[in-house]
Amino acid sequence: MKLIGSLTSPFVRKVRIVMAEKKLDYQLVLEDVWSSDAILKMNPLGKVPCLVMEGQDSITGAVFDSRVIVEYVDTLSPVGKLIPERGRERTEVKTWEALADGVMDAAVLALLENKFAGRPPEQRCEAWVQRQLDKVSAACAAMNQGLGDKAWCWGNHFSLADISVGCALGYVDFRFPAIDWRGANPNLARHFEKLGARQSFIDTAPPAA
Q1: Are residues 43 and 125 in the same domain?
Q2: Cα–Cα distance between 19 and 39 in angstroms, integer?
Q3: Where is the GST N-terminal domain positioned along the sequence (predicted)?
Q4: Beta-carbon neighbour count of residue 89 at 10 Å?
Q5: Tens digit of pLDDT for each residue in 89-147?
Q6: Which residues partner with 27 through β-bridges?
Q7: Which of 199, 208, 206, 209 is nearest to 17 (CA)?
Q8: Domain count, the chain
């Protein structure tokens, strides 16, 4: 399998961590979607991550969107099941993932509004940026409350919920280091520190600026 992505995308990082925790082999193919249209051959949306099945080289052999990819990858090996198969348990883990993905979406939108080269400074909207960062703050507060004093986001073991939360918080630290989400969310800060000690998180940390 080939995973097309970048070292800075939190969605790619989520897939990479899942692959590592599942102990699956793959080839990471780096792609800058902002400077090349090569990704369109595999994903018409022009986005990463994109997982390409072995021996395939067209859209029909590709899986895209991080939620779809991790869902598929979790079925490839019985090692470290990350997503419950059914029922309320599955819904809870996927809801954690959706919340964390929302943080990443909002942070990416805020970053693009400030940094996208195609938008001149006079066209950038600070109110839009603040609206996205308010979503980040609200989601962090919700995750902090949901976590409480539990060892893991869901159940009594590590799951996709924890991976998603860790990737979201890591991306906020990476792109918006001035945001002090830890100060108001001690439960989340504690959990993030624990997640950061896992080898899968260490190996996929975004490059230093």
Answers
A1: no
A2: 21
A3: 1-81
A4: 14
A5: 999 999 999 999 999 999 999 999 999 888 888 999 999 999 999 999 999 999 999 99
A6: 2
A7: 199
A8: 2
